[in-house]
């Protein structure tokens, strides 16, 4: 996983063609957040899904980079004063703290837009058929858009003004975090010409680990180690934010993470994924992580 | 032109599939700005370019809507307090004035992301070949992205802090306004299977009317009628913003608009566009407009 992560980081560092004229501050602001580290979970999922079906890592890389650009833009915009108003992210000052709000908004817009350019490179450079790549474009815009990740963030902002029950919380988790994880897996599958049954298995795997991932995040916010996390804990409690552990308690939440992980693995076994070992590894890593 | 404009408005009103679950405020905020009127210049250009080469209006419509979504998102984000801090747009309160800053940022993100979904519909619904549609995706992300429209806006923000000469101003105009106009024309051409020579003619037409359009905007800001414009004039003067009339004077600016318009028309005549009448009509409209 570390080796793949290094390859993703290298690809992300050269994400803008060198002969493109991009204003200095904008490029710097985009690069700052894109290279600020992080687990690279979503790119790893794209690549692991492609490889689980015998697809090529090279062909998966442009989409792996695209999904990280989308994730990074969403963090930059979520951290803005008008949104979650966060000063630190991954142990470093947030984008708007370094470059100012206007540059942070534009850096987010730039990364979001450029993600689609990166997806298109799968066809241009690695001969993924145009139909497959276009299906990935359509799914990225759907899973990251108003009924996907942006919708989840909007519901989260509305919920902070008081309206949340367990259904509302599920909606937020499903879209704010889950949708992009599901996208990553299905896009990896598409690059390796997955069958509809295999795409369905990857989607069910993604839904389950996505939800487990978010519950684990909420658990870590409650009992995690600030130094390892690179951000302050107990922020949900301080913000009086309703989370899964708030409804179910800590022990039941931990059990739910384990149950969802087992369910995720089962989906791959039932769904005819020839080589799921790397995807199993990622789901185990998520289960045991402390940051 | 009015008839086409009405068809674009109808298409934009139903831009989100009805069975999609989108949080109420987000959907409302997106629709508010998307249906707030405006000239619909960019969609008209997509359709006129497609029809100038014998392409179908139906097949051009998804891309026409997409370019208006991109344009609208850019206005929403540009109006934010951290950017231009505008309270009115097209005679109505700006998005963040009605829905708040967080919702306005997300409405912009949602429109930007959904634009790519809309482009993909050209293939799904109207059988535009996947290669053509993917080329449109790639160009949209390039012309609207960090080295295109977002880059132009970033350069404009930097320039407001004092650094501008005529070259800097050209960079801003070329990217902030020009790139999306050029995209609209080339995308319309691609839908009608334009040859490379025809695409080149459409690009030169777009570059010229794009620059003319921006100079005309600057002229109207200086001497226009506030009621017709739906916004206050002399804002550039008040902001001490450097504009083309500032460098060249009012009369020379007017002459330049006329010269660029003539050059634009010449590009179509030289470039083998079979039926350029509608495109000529749009460039004449831009030349004579008072809002």
TrEMBL record, chains A, B:
GO cellular component: cytoplasm
Single GO MF descriptor: metal ion binding
Pfam families the UniProt entry points to: polyprenyl_synt
UniProt xrefs under Gene3D superfamilies: Farnesyl Diphosphate Synthase (1.10.600.10)
Catalyses which reaction(s): isopentenyl diphosphate + (2E)-geranyl diphosphate = (2E,6E)-farnesyl diphosphate + diphosphate
EC number: 2.5.1.10
Superkingdom as given in the UniProt entry: Bacteria
UniProt keywords, alphabetically: Isoprene biosynthesis, Magnesium, Metal-binding, Transferase
Cofactor(s) needed: Mg(2+)
InterPro entries: Isoprenoid_synthase_dom_sf, Polyprenyl_synt, Polyprenyl_synt_CS, Prenyl_diphosphate_synthase
Keyword Transferase (UniProt): yes
A biological process from GO: terpenoid biosynthetic process
Family to which the UniProt record says this protein belongs: Belongs to the FPP/GGPP synthase family.
UniProt cross-references to PANTHER family, sorted A to Z: FARNESYL DIPHOSPHATE SYNTHASE
Protein name per its UniProtKB record: Farnesyl diphosphate synthase
The organism of origin for this protein: Paenibacillus yonginensis
């Amino acid at each position: 996983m570390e080796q793949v992560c290094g390859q993703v980081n290298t690809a992300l560092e050269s994400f803008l063609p060198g002969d493109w004229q991009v204003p200095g501050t904008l490029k710097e602001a985009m690069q700052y957040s894109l290279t600020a580290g992080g687990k690279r979970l979503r790119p790893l999922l794209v690549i692991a899904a492609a490889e689980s079906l015998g697809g090529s890592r090279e062909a998966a890389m442009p989409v792996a980079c695209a999904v990280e650009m989308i994730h990074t833009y969403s963090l930059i915009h979520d951290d803005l004063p008008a949104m979650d108003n966060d000063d630190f992210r991954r142990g470093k000052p947030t984008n708007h703290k370094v470059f100012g709000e206007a540059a942070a908004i534009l850096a987010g817009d730039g990364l979001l837009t450029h993600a689609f350019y990166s997806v298109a490179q799968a066809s241009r450079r690695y001969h993924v058929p145009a139909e497959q790549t276009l299906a990935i474009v359509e799914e990225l815009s759907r899973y990251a858009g108003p009924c996907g990740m942006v919708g989840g963030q909007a519901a989260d902002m509305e919920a902070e003004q008081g309206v949340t029950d367990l259904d509302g919380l599920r909606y937020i988790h499903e879209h704010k975090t889950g949708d992009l994880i599901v996208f990553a897996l299905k896009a990896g599958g598409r690059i390796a010409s997955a069958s509809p049954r295999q795409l369905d298995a990857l989607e069910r795997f993604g839904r389950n680990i996505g939800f487990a991932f978010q519950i684990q995040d909420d658990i870590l916010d409650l009992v995690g180690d600030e130094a390892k996390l690179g951000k302050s804990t107990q922020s949900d409690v301080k913000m009086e934010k309703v989370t899964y552990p708030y409804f179910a308690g800590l022990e039941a939440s931990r059990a739910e993470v384990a149950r969802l992980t087992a369910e995720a693995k089962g989906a791959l076994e039932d769904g005819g994924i020839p080589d799921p070992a790397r995807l199993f590894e990622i789901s185990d890593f998520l289960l045991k992580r402390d940051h």
